[in-house]
Amino acid sequence: MTYRTSPAGEAAPAPAPRPGGTGELAGRAVARVGYGAMQLARLHDDRRAAVALLRHAIDLGVDHVDTAQFYGDGFVNDVIREALRPQDDVLVVSKVGAVSDPGGPMPLRLAQRPGELRASVEANLAALGTDRIAVVNLRRVDSGITVPVPDDQVIGLDDQLAEMAAMRDEGKIGAIGLSSVSLDVLRRALPAGVVCVQNAYSLVARDDEDLLRLCAAEGIAWVPYFPLGGALPGLAKVTDEPAVRAAAERLGCTPAQVGLAWLLHHDPRTLLIPGTADTGHLEANLAAGAITLDAETLAALDAVPSRPATAPRH
After folding, report:
1. What is the set of domains in the chain, with CATH numbers?
2. CA distance 79 to 46
3. What is the pTM of this model?
4. Which pLDDT band holds residue 5 (cuts at 50, 70, 90)?
């Protein structure tokens, strides 16, 4: 899904500079700092504020928005559909592999079967009001923080990729990405044509360094989620690290901005999708793309120990 065309007689406004500079996703130039829309669900009771926040992100140069139909049980995609205008040059990326389950023991349940993947794509298309989504990520459960995996949701990668490729051939999706995958799974998936990988990764959780290097070698965009760590109680937080706090004080920025800036410096194919429901945090996240880290600061940050990014699997 890409909004790029101006109505007849209406000139598109001059775009704002891309936050973080320019990266590449699915053959398209995008801002290296985009927006992860999951947190818009926190504004469920104030739809106008949710739309305004997303519009503000776009006005500040964001042209890469990450979403899923299960974010806010469809609310987030509805907001995206309302907020984006035909003349906006925005690439929207969605994901499949889970669905909302508001009445269940957890708000999400896995939906990994090929037929469920197709149904999820169709639901995204309908909610977003489009006939094609530029990139759809297959959210697996090979690594990262995930919901419990029942036996009937342990699905072979080849079957899933065959369904994703079929939908790509049909024009429903433009390109295939992967999320929460291991190094072995990415290697096996390469022949299908993978354009991005989303895994839990941050300064304090760098278990996937080998996977990141494979992405770099294959020209695959690296899109880390939980970029500041601390997704669950007991997991390390980037903003708690003394080296991060010292760098923030020296640079006159926040520890969170240092953590985001480190990710951008660490690998040139990294694209960030930090999410927030707060305008001030949004502006700070985008401003992190302009922070320069000198060699001494980078060395101090690189020396921060890496800890596991995930809670124990049950």
Report:
1. 2-302 (3.20.20.100)
2. 11
3. 0.92
4. very low
